[in-house]
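seq/struct pair 1
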Amino acid sequence: MQKKDEDQVVWGRHEVAEALEAGHPVQRVYFSREASGEHIDKIKELAQKRGVRFDFIEVGKLGKLAGTRAHQDVVARLSPVRLASLEDVLAGLEDECTIVALDQVRHLRNVGMIARSAAAAGAAALLFSSRGGHPLNDEVVKASSGAIFHLPVIQTTHFGRDLEKMQQAGFWIYGLAAAGGEDMFQVDWPKRRVLVAGNESKGLRPAVQKATDALVRIPMAPEVKSLNVAVAMSVALFAARGPGVS
C-alpha cells in the first residue's frame, strides 16, 4: 500500500518488492527488527541488487513511518526525484555538454546546491553514488530550490564503471582537487566533460582519482586552503561552460 503522495512511502511485503523490481526510485527500505522469512529475504536481495540501503528499526517507529500497523514488517521510502539511466542520458546528449558526478558527497545541502548550480549552468545530467553518498530526499529538493527537477539524475552503484562508460562516449573526466592539478581557468576544455567532486572530508577516493583524465583546481589566495564542495563545483561548472555559451 501507499500513503499520501507527500509522505512518499510504500508498505507491505508485496508492494515493496514490486517497487524494487519495477526500478522505482526507492531511497531506503526499513524492516522491523523482528522481520524474517522468505519474503523478507527476497526484499533484502532485491534491495542489494538495486543498490538500495536498508535498516532495521523498532516496530513502533516502523508503524509511525507507514502510518499503519499493517505494514508487514517492511516500509520503503521513495525518492521524490525520478531517476534516469546513464544509457538513456548518453543516447540523447548534444555534442557539447557537461555532466556532474558526485563521489560520496554526503551533506544534503551540498547535494541540493550542486544540483541547482548544475541546472543553472546547463549541465546535461547529475550522477551520484548510492554507496557512501546521500540518497535524494525532500531536503535535497528544498536545498536545490526545485532546480533538481530540471536535469536528469542518475544513481549508480558502480561509480568507476560509469566513469569509464562516459569516457567511451567521448567524455574527459576532470576531478576537482583542493591542491595540485591544473588551474581550471587555464584548461582548454573539451566539448564533452565530466566534473567529479569527492566527499566533503576525504575528497576523491584513490580509485576514482586514478580514473580521471586530469585534476583541476581553483586558484585561491594562500590564506584559504579549500572551498566548500558545493561552492567549488559551482565555480568549476561555469569555468567549464565558458563565456557566451547558451
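seq/struct pair 2
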Amino acid sequence: DKQYLKKIEGIFLEEKWIRYYPHASLLSKTLGFVGHENKGLSGIEYFLDEQLRGLPEKILYHQDAKGRPLKIDQRSKGDLPENITLTVSKKIQEFLEETLHELLKNSRSNAVGGLILDVHSGEILGISHLPQDDLNSKKKKFFTQPIITDVLEPGSVLKPIIIAILLEHQLIDENTKIF
C-alpha cells in the first residue's frame, strides 16, 4: 500500500510515466518512440511531439534566500495532449505485416516494405518496412520509415502502375510478356 510505504523513514515513492505500445512492433517505424523525458525521438512521436505531449503548467514564484518558494506570483495552465487519429486500419496493417514477414522469411532479402492506399482518398491504410523493433523494448534504435523517406528509382515505382493501366484498358493480358 502506497500510504503505508510513505510513512516509513527513508522510503520515497516516485511516480514515473512511461509510454506503452499495446501492439509492440505493429506500425513501429511509423509511430516512432519517445525517450526518457517523454520527448518524441522518431516517427509520428517526433513529428507531432508538441500535440501529443501538450504543454506543461508553468508556475512563477518568489523564493527566500534558501531557495524555498514563498509565494506564487503567476500560474498558467498547460495545454492537454491532443488525440491523433491515423487512417491506418489495424486489420490491414496486421495483414500487411504478416505478408511481409512471410516474404522476408522466404526470400534472400535483408528488408521488405509495403504500402496500402485507399485508391479513392489516397489515405494510408497500411504501411510497413521490415525488420522492425518492438516499441516496448529498452533497446530501440533511431529509425525512419524507408517507405516514405528513401528514394526509389522512378522505373521501380512506375512499372506496376503502367502494367495496371494496360491491363485495365485490355491492351495486354496476364499472359503478355514484356521485355
